[in-house]
Amino acid sequence: MENLICAKCGVPLEKRRTAFQYLGYEIYEELPRCPVCGQVYLDEALVRGRMHEVETEVEDK
Amino acid sequence: MRKPFRDTRSVCPVCLRPVKAQLCREEEAGAVFLQKSCPSHGAFSVPVWRGKVPFDQWTANAKPLGPEEGLYCPSACGICPEHGQGTCCVLLEVTRRCDLFCQYCFANGGGMAEDPPLDELKRAVDDILRQCGKPLLQLSGGEPSLRDDLPELIAYARKQGCETIQLNTNGLRLAREPEYAARLAEAGLSIVFLQFDGVSDQVYEALRGAKLYEEKMRAIENCNRVRTGVTLVPTVVRGVNDQMLGEIIRLGASLSPAVRGVHFQPVSHFGRYPVVPQDGMRITLDELIDGICRQTGLSLDVFQPSCCDHPLCGFHISALASPCCCGVKPLPVSRQGAVSTAEQNRDYIARRWQRGSSQDGEDAGPLNDPKALDMNAFLRLLRTRSFTITAMAFQDAWNLDIERLHRCSLHVYNKGMVKPFCANYLTAAQAEN
Asked: Å from A48 to nearest chain B CA?
């Protein structure tokens, strides 16, 4: 997670509070984000881990 | 004037002979009746929908029975290649004995019949796993807790690979022996499916012949102590507890996370029932929905038709227990109209009706608005305060619709066979008490 560089802007990402919107909920997480263009880096562990868990819990059968 | 609009099959309620049937609509009221005729016993008509909810919209994902389908149902049940759904849950009767003698009992429990030996039940568990994969196992009866070796059977089923085990119980032993819940939990019990008809003694006197309200509450308390999730299961009977639906939901939600949901079962007439049902005694699924809406303020659009079983067999609402007036806050609907598999249904039930482990920080989440939480707290809240409102409308010899039976995912293990629940317990009118 350290030393990630934004592919578009070439600047280091910074950890910032990021809001996710999903099925009407807004959930916050500290994530690496480009201070120039705002792109967020989501690592695989988060996507396959807690984000997937949130989806499973919120979604229907 | 009733207009036929859908062909299906059923049985004669007197002789159980398979017969052709039709769904017929009363256009003005939107009510739907199942009509059929037996060459020996005449014509029968029974209400299946009262027009409180638009029928066509509710049943949109139901596939009509083809002309060559269902010809041998239910007399040839077992689950056959024609059956349209897998096994979500298998019910295993572990005793016929019961310590109550309820007016309504699908299993006609009671009496002195000898229990099957433990070894026979262990073989049944092995056979269920062989035939059905890893379904949710429901131990039922009679009253299953009357068996002293129940913890041993639960432990065996867990060891053999049953991941979710549910106990279908009146809760009396759980209430009277505080250490009993711990023994079941240690053995690996996942969910208590608690007969819970209402929030007053009068309801239990009417349906179960005894004042049981305090004992039901004690059973919940004892399960809570060992973190076994409890689902409240009211049998809904007109004039007895059909005006208490909202109170049951509010009470259940107020006991979250100990109570995980309410599972309503409108009364059906099989096994043991007091009288041949008149039309006015029946509570159709749409009436139940309408009653819940009126008594809670919940809106119709939060009710989802069963997406595993036939839409006329049930509904579900996924919600969070909440401090609002009706006690629950429905989660958004994400998969409107989709059909789900028995495995998806089983996973949903297992996830929502079990308690999380204390390591999940289960009790850390306050009952507040989840909108402004970080991801960990949000997950904790969802898991802790998950609350479902569900229903299953069983079928009897009068309203049996083979189209519905074809999609049944609740099965019963009976002498080596796995049968749809309503086929297994189907009871002819002559057998009335």
From this structure: 14
